[in-house]
Amino acid sequence: MKTTKAGIFLLFCVLLGSSGVRGEVTIAEILGEEEETAPAGIPEVVGPDWTEITCDGNMLVNYEEGWVRFSRNVKVKNQRGTILSDLLVIFTRDNGEKVDRAEARGNVHILTGEREGTGDSLIYYPDEKKAVLIGNAVLRDGQNSVNGQSITFHTDTRDAEIDRADQVEFHPRTEFELDF
Predict the structure, then answer these.
(1) Is residue 132 part of a domain?
(2) pLDDT digits (tens, 9 = 90+) for 46-71
(3) Helical (H) or strand (E) element with 81
(4) Residue 179 lies in a domain
(5) How far apart are the C-alpha atoms of 103 and 123, rounded to whole Å?
(6) Dihedrals phi, psi of 72, to nearest 5 degrees
(7) What is the Cβ-side half-sphere exposure of residue 151, based on CA atoms within 13 angstroms?
């Protein structure tokens, strides 16, 4: 598996607004993997905000058009969680200094602590602080879930907009009584 440390690619910066991993289950356990360690002499993490992108296919860079493409079994991992997809394209601006948007396509699976999202594609807009899960979108948080054609998640406010919700399942964390 090819590995690319992508410090400049601060994509999915908040991975759908997660404030950290909750619970005692790790992402590696969910994925059925062993924890990876860096080879001797190579630091495990570079800086407080890091992103590692791996893929089984090619990494193509087009400096003139400002994009980077990763193909086949793409895995985006940082301290906030993991995104898996078939393809990832990062569109940059300002001569590659900033991410304009990032698009994950095909079998998108997002893991952030107890939260999990799936869909056909995901577009992340860092300047707008929003991520849009498109096509057969499902968002789960513990026992709660929502299905829709698309789900827009605002990473700064943690608000979600669901387009054409097919099913919503909500389980309150505490029991309460309603008086009418």
Answers:
(1) yes
(2) 567 788 999 999 999 999 999 999 99
(3) strand 81-93
(4) no
(5) 4
(6) 65, 115
(7) 26
Question: Are the beta carbons of 1 and 55 closer than 8 angstroms?
Answer: yes
What's the Cα-to-Cα distance from 120 to each of 67, 106, 141, rounded to whole Å? 21, 5, 19
Residue 180 falls within a domain, yes or no? no
Residues 150, 134 contacting (CB under 8 angstroms): yes
Q: Which residue has the tokens 């998108």?
A: 108
Strand partners of residue 153: 131, 160
State which H helix or E strand residue 120 sits in: strand 115-125
76 in Cβ contact with 82 (< 8 Å)? yes
Contact 104, 112 (CB under 8 A): no
Half-sphere exposure (Cβ direction) of 26: Cα atoms closer than 13 Å: 10
What is the pLDDT of the chain when averaged over all its residues?
Answer: 77
Q: Which residues face 150 on adjacent strands?
A: 134, 163
The pTM of this model reads 0.69
- How many CB atoms lie under 10 A from the CB of residue 19? 10
Q: CATH code at 113?
A: 2.60.450.10
Would residue 77 count as lying in a domain? Answer: yes
The number of distinct structural domains making up the chain is 1
Determine the Cα–Cα distance for residues 173 and 149; give it in Å rounded to an integer.
27
Give the range of the structural domain holding residue 135, as residue numbers without chain letter.
2-169
